[in-house]
Amino acid sequence: MDFDQPLAVPPADGLGFATSWPVRTGDVAPDNRLRFDGITRYLQDIGSDNLDASELADLDPLWIVRRTVIDVVRPALWPDRIHLRRWCSGLSTRWSAMRVQLTSEKGALIETEGFWINISPDTGMPTRISDKGIALLSRTTDEHRLKWRPWLAGPPPEDDGTDARFHLRSTDLDPMGHVNNAAYWHAVEDHLVARPDLFAAPHRAVLEYNAPITAGEDVHVRCRQDAESMSLWFLVGGEVKAVARVSGIDHY
């Protein structure tokens, strides 16, 4: 699977974990659009709720995201109520692809997928998913040989003097001392202010996390764009910590 491929279709009705809540005003842009960072927080929240509602909260309690894919087919606009459905679309022994579909009472449709890695609370390293966890995740997929392959590989472009500093705040840090994955989307939203055309039709946003950013690091964002897309590299001392890309899609 690569950047332009459609996401896995939903399973049969009734499968997966479902919940809903209102669109929050703190998660929307001035035009009332649910922002990417807001969507990402919703993905984190339903992930936590899903764990708490299953045996995974005790068996496999700690996961980190390696890639987030967000397909905005029809944006969610405040005020509205979002309905979320989460299921596994592929797994291996140490990670899984978790799909979340967001729909709304006013017709929004946002399709997402996260590549999540199971982490040992004792070592902080990737670890095998429990047998019970594999059985639970397998209820919605037959794909048991999921492999990691980056969609946004390759070196960053040369520095042309236009890099923007990404100022870190204490509120950006998660319990592991890393910048929360939703905070990266603040930079994406900042750069997209100048590209309203990318919001005018269905679009895909992908963010891949290569290495954690921690407190005190000097982070710069390098942006390049063309008529169809925008790409951003999050750099610390020349090392690419994360990469994002936003582009139109035509498979919906």
Oligomer: single chain
Strand order of the largest sheet: 1-3-4-5-2-7-10-9-8-6
Helices and strands, in order, run as EHHEEEEHEHEEEE
- Biggest sheet layout: 10 strands, antiparallel
Mean pLDDT: 96
Percent range of helical residues: 10-25%
The amount of beta strand, in percent, is: 25-35%
Structural class: alpha+beta
Feature tags:
252 residues, alpha+beta, Thiol Ester Dehydrase, Chain A, 2 domains, 10-stranded antiparallel beta sheet, 4 helices, 16% helix, globular
Structure description:
It is a single chain. This protein has 2 domains: 17-140, Thiol Ester Dehydrase, Chain A (Roll); 164-248, Hotdog Thioesterase (Thiol Ester Dehydrase, Chain A). It has a 10-stranded antiparallel β-sheet, with helices on one face. Strand 8 (219-225) and strand 9 form a beta hairpin. With 252 residues, the chain is α+β, with helices and mostly antiparallel strands. Helix content is 16%, strand content 33%. The protein has helices at residues 36-52, 56-59, 131-137, 181-192, and strands at 17-22, 63-74, 81-91, 95-104, 109-118, 164-166, 203-209, 219-225, 229-236, 239-248.
